[in-house]
Amino acid sequence: MSTTVSTQIQLAARPIGWPTAADFTTARVELGELGADQLRVVNEYISVDPYMRGRMSDAKSYAAPFALGETMTGGAIGRVVESTSKSIPVGSVVLHQFGWRDVVQEDAAGFRVVPELPGVPLSVYLGILGMTGLTGFVGLTAIAGMKPGDTVFISGAAGAVGTAAGQIARLMGAGRVIGSAGSDEKVALLKEKYGYDEAFNYKSGPVRELLAAAAPEGIDVFFDNVGGDHLEAALDVFNPGGRAALCGAIAGYNVTDRKVGPDNMVNMITRGLSLKGFTLGSYLDLAPEFNANMSKWFAAGEIAFDETVVDGIDHAVDAFLGMMRGANTGKMVVRTAAMTDLIG
């Protein structure tokens, strides 16, 4: 292999408020010869995700912060172009967490081989068939205990996790699925493509009023990706015994002042509500159950998905910043340079 330089995106500074391009830098890293049981992989897609914003801060959290001057980690998928591994040969498609780089060289233990699906881009393993879909499944089942017939509200429903969670809720027998999104076009997509029974544009008015109108008989389950006014609105309309899976709070990720909390938390007591936050790493044991269900649904043509694709590793930061501002529909991924550009 003649090309031994990997283009990598690194965190240069800890953002204050909204991240900017100045918080990142691009490094060209020369790769050495493979060691024992190692792979060299040319990435085809890398993932950018909301949780990455939290790890750019050095505040105490569920995971260690990204280190300054080191390459951003996260989900990626690519093909093996060199191997000293007995178990993973050249040509294999592999998933990994080595993140924002076009070529990765690491021990074989850090990669997982996945099959290619005819007519389906490899990026699907970073979205609906991967951690994104699993997040929706875990939140609805293990956290919120969704039951057939429940009315389910999903905030940020046009994003990667939201589109997955809405379909999973419907396929698992939800009586009604309601979503919020940031534009009229996304609202239409939720209802026409993803099977949502009702959806509203949260930018068109107070969320408390919009959700009350969309759910006149209340909600039983809330899958929250947004927090803030969406959580407050859900607390207003919860039925007795309602349950919330708190997956994300993107409304507050970039704020620099302390926000006042919901003014209706007393409803948790009077209605016997349960609100539980979660991160996926504690529930990976549910992956086999998710894979069995999702494989069946996907093969039957019961799952739709959208991707917003940004081309070029040098545009990974643009993709991340766009995703944080809601520029994506479905999963946001970065398609790195073609393999012919990276290998000689």
From TrEMBL:
Alphabetic keyword roster: Oxidoreductase
Listed InterPro entries: ADH-like_C, ADH_N_2, ER, GroES-like_sf, MDR_fam, NAD(P)-bd_dom_sf
Keyword flag Oxidoreductase: yes
SMART domains: PKS_ER (SM00829)
Pfam families: ADH_N_2 (PF16884), ADH_zinc_N (PF00107)
Domain Enoyl reductase (ER): 17-334
CDD domains in alphabetical order: PGDH
GO molecular function: oxidoreductase activity, acting on the CH-CH group of donors, NAD or NADP as acceptor
Membrane-spanning segments: none
Protein name: NADP-dependent oxidoreductase
Keyword Ion transport: no
